[in-house]
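<given_protein>
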Amino acid sequence: MNPGIAAVTGRVLVVDDEKPLAQMIATYLTRAGYDVATAHTGPDAVEAVRDRSPDVVVLDLGLPGMDGIEVCRRIRGFSECYVLMLTARGDEEDKLAGLAAGADDYITKPFSVRELVARVAAVLRRPRTTVASVEPAREFGDLTVDLTAHEARVVGEPVALTRTEFDLLAALTDRPHQALTRRQLIETVWGPAWVGDERIVDVHIGHLRRKLGEDQSTFIDTVRGVGYRMVIR
């Protein structure tokens, strides 16, 4: 592997019906220091996530038995693992569908395995919304964001957010009323080394708004030509 890529310990599940490709990816990830397992069908992937509780799932879209989109939807019902979706180059619909199903990021085919290993390392190095000491919960009307508990609540009821969605909400609430660009949010949530389509922020903001039960963007404003900001009505 590239000596410039430092390994980050973690559990990775590689899901691809092309067994030679899955094994090659697994070999590179194992050499990088990860605990790696493979699955080759949709149902096997869901079962493997339940059994192994991976930190990252590298998930191909085209799978027998259940496609990658449905696999992602199902594992989002019980796991907060990072999901890195493999999509065809230039297929915008696949990227959007994967993100809509709960994927955190994507990488387009064809790709180098070293690039994929680097992307797995990057997602595991992503800044986390941890706090060194107990911090008062942030209140935005009916919305409460509790960094210490890593929980968001609306009218006292917990909201099921993915890690990416919660980190995005934490970044916005950290600077209320301040307009943050997509690039600023990417650097805060995905990390400064992330490369790709910045519209990934728009997709995750859309998920966040729906889950918060927003009506007319109650909590998150779109700042035209700039990005987004958190507001108190």
Remarks:
- The longest helix spans residues 19-31.
